Amino acid sequence: MILIIDDDKSVRLSLSLLLKRAGYEADSAANPEEALQKVRQRQYELLLMDMNFSRGVTGEEGIELLRKVKILTPETPVILITAWGSIELAVEGMRHGAYDFVTKPWNNHLFLQRINTAIDLNRAEATPEIKSFDRGGIIGESKGIKEVLESVERIAPSDAPVLILGENGTGKELVANAIHHNSRRRESPFVMVNLGGISQSLFESEMFGHAKGAFTGAVTARKGRFELADKGTIFLDEIGDLDMSCQVKLLRVLQQHTFEPLGDPRTRKVDIRVVAATNADLRKMVEEKSFREDLFYRINLITLYLPALRERREDIPLLVRHFLKQCAKSNGLKMPEVAADAMEYLTRLPYPGNIRQLRNIVERAILTGGGRLVKENFLSLAGNAADEKEIKPISTIGDMEKEVIEKALAEVGGNHSRAARNLGLTRQALYRRMEKYGLK
């Protein structure tokens, strides 16, 4: 049963008919007092709540009702209904525990899709199903990685947007892939977009496509990433790097699932699930006004945090063997063994580049060793002298990270791009660490 809370009789009637045609039972309330009385009397699967009542045109009454509802029934998802010009009000509602929001006039198909997602996800959290799950190449048995996998298994079947947080090189793309391949959209496209690599001037063309002749050089029509991802999942990587003007354009598409290609006035509709990722602190960016708060709430209905490699060191031996097997097979080499002291040393490195850096160390070691891996291959590539006879303890993680970066820079004659690549870092991440440790 779904409760519709709106003081407009025509809205209550139209939503009731929409829900009943979709197979749901519907109840309604015309004002906050009636809504609270009904919520006290029975448990609803979902509440659809307008934010503006006739006695509170600025939305205070809607916010107050939401607060009371979340006290009475904290587990029931609430979808807010508001006008496009009052999105700030919906964002305020999200802060107070609302699940999602839609804007007037709404698209019936998209509205039902969000209703289905909210109910399905709430049911899954209350009664988790036992089913087959594909880890999608995610390696690890540590507590942190198991928690990530359990979350992926629980949320993948829904269409809820997901925000993946974690440092560079922690495997955010793998997790996004796992979400897609365990969802109902697994047979449809998975389209990855590195937003950090798209300039402001190319954003619309890249994301929405363009018609032939839309601009100089547009000799043929081209589909954008959103259209390519139709019926599937779009992975918006490095979303924290998107400038404010592009954030507005992105929000429109995520809200309405419609867009117009450059030079083509015809509106395109897409059915997509959105998974976003970043290594930035988006909450801090929202406070600093460099990331839109409404976009933040649109993309992070569910948030997953990926632990850094230094936070899951017990997984390093599994990852080392996995990368050894991969590299040996692709290069026609015999799978080598790893000396116990070398493996022990590898588990203690700081890994500023996380899993990506570990993979680079393993691959370079096996290739330079011609398939016969010895301790020195690892130690030299990890930042220690090749002839070191004993693994010496290093005082702090910061000391270890500084030493690894110094060795990586020395190996390539100070070339920042090559050092960053070998460490599995972006150049910007390398610069931040060099500044931190006073390296020039």
Record keyword descriptors for this entry.
440 residues; alpha/beta; Rossmann fold; Helicase, Ruva Protein, domain 3; globular
Description:
With 440 residues, the chain is α/β, with parallel strands linked by helices. It starts with a strand and ends with a helix. Helix 10 (244-256) crosses helix 12 (293-299). Helices cover 46% and strands 13% of the residues. It has 3 domains: 2-126, Response regulator (Rossmann fold); 143-307, 3-Layer(aba) Sandwich (Rossmann fold); 310-437, Helicase, Ruva Protein, domain 3, CATH 1.10.8. The protein has a 5-stranded parallel β-sheet with strand order 2-1-3-4-5, sandwiched between helices. Strand 1, helix 1 (9-21) and strand 2 (26-29) form a beta-alpha-beta unit. The protein has helices at residues 9-21, 32-41, 60-72, 87-95, 108-126, 143-155, 172-181, 203-208, 225-228, 244-256, 282-287, 293-299, 316-330, 340-346, 354-368, 375-381, 397-411, 416-423, 427-437, and strands spanning 2-5, 26-29, 46-50, 78-83, 100-104, 162-165, 190-194, 209-210, 222-223, 233-237, 258-259, 268-269, 273-278, 302-305.
Pick out the low-confidence regions.
384-394
Radius of gyration: 26 Å
Tell me the β content. 5-15%
Average pLDDT metric: 84
Task: Put the structure in a nutshell.
With 440 residues, the protein is an alpha/beta fold. It has helices at residues 9-21, 32-41, 60-72, 87-95, 108-126, 143-155, 172-181, 203-208, 225-228, 244-256, 282-287, 293-299, 316-330, 340-346, 354-368, 375-381, 397-411, 416-423, 427-437, and strands spanning 2-5, 26-29, 46-50, 78-83, 100-104, 162-165, 190-194, 209-210, 222-223, 233-237, 258-259, 268-269, 273-278, 302-305. It has 19 helices and 14 strands.
